[in-house]
Amino acid sequence: MKYSKQENISSLSNTTYSKVRERLRNDILSNYFAPGTRLKIMDLVKLYNVSQMPIREALQQLQGEGLVVIEQHKGAYVRHIDKKFVSNIYDVRRVIEVFMTLESMRSTTDDILKKLWKIQAGCEKAARKGNLEQLLKYNTDFHGTLYKLADNEEAFHLVEGHWQLINSLRTSFGYGVRRADEIIHEHEQILKALEKRDEKALEEAASIHCINAKKDVLLQMDMMEQKKLSVTK
Questions:
Q1: Distance between CA atoms of 125 and 138, rounded to whole angstroms?
Q2: Fewer beta carbons under 10 A from the terminal one: N or C of the chain?
Q3: Which residue has the higher pLDDT, 178 or 230?
């Protein structure tokens, strides 16, 4: 298949934008850009060695994720990522994710269940090896496969917008000692409820999964803060 020059340019632009967005997101979460820091476009152009367009697109995307605040006549600055902000994100996600999990049951076939169990096996393998990156990937695949079955693009878009943010938070703060095992167990409960077409059990399993995820990331944030305080003493 041949591509036009314009298509090639568009593809390159999208790739550049994605890389800039990920780099900027990681730099914010790693505290390279501290909360409240002004994000001046020309400074970012020099830092990342790209044109203004991907910088502007990345800032817009990160504003949607809640990491960046853009005010008229003032420009963009880094939002303070505190426990309240993270808690709010998880609360909103729980409402949407439980809804989408329930909706997915209508379209779940035997083939879909086989696919989900296969992804689950990948989760278990990654957990045994302690491979956080792979565990995050399989976890995203697991839920993405389910949520697409709900056939609600608006709801899926809202959840998808936070996936990279949450995965980046997990990369920064890690998981608790038992969280990986909990994820495996909670996924199993979701799958068993889907197999039985048990709506009540499915709703409970999906809700518990979201609640425990929130508890763990907030706990890891607390532990990180305590470590920082102990270092400064």
A1: 10
A2: N
A3: 178
Alpha carbon of 200 to those of 8, 90, 197: distances in Å?
Answer: 49, 21, 9
Q: How far is CA 57 from the centre of its chain?
A: 19
Q: Are strands 75-78 and 38-39 parallel, antiparallel or unpaired?
A: antiparallel
**Residues near 121 by Cβ (< 8 Å), separated by ≥ 6?**
none
Cα-to-chain-centroid distance, residue 225: 22
Q: Do residue 109 and residue 171 come from a single domain?
A: yes
Look at the pTM and tell me if it is higher than 0.90. Answer: no
How big is the CA angle at 188 (ends 185 and 191), to the nearest 5 degrees? 155
Euclidean distance between CA atoms 105 and 100, whole angstroms: 9
126 and 219 share a domain? yes
Answer whether 185's CB lies under 8 Å from 123's CB.
no
Residues 153 and 215 in one domain: yes
Token pair 């994710």 is found at: 97
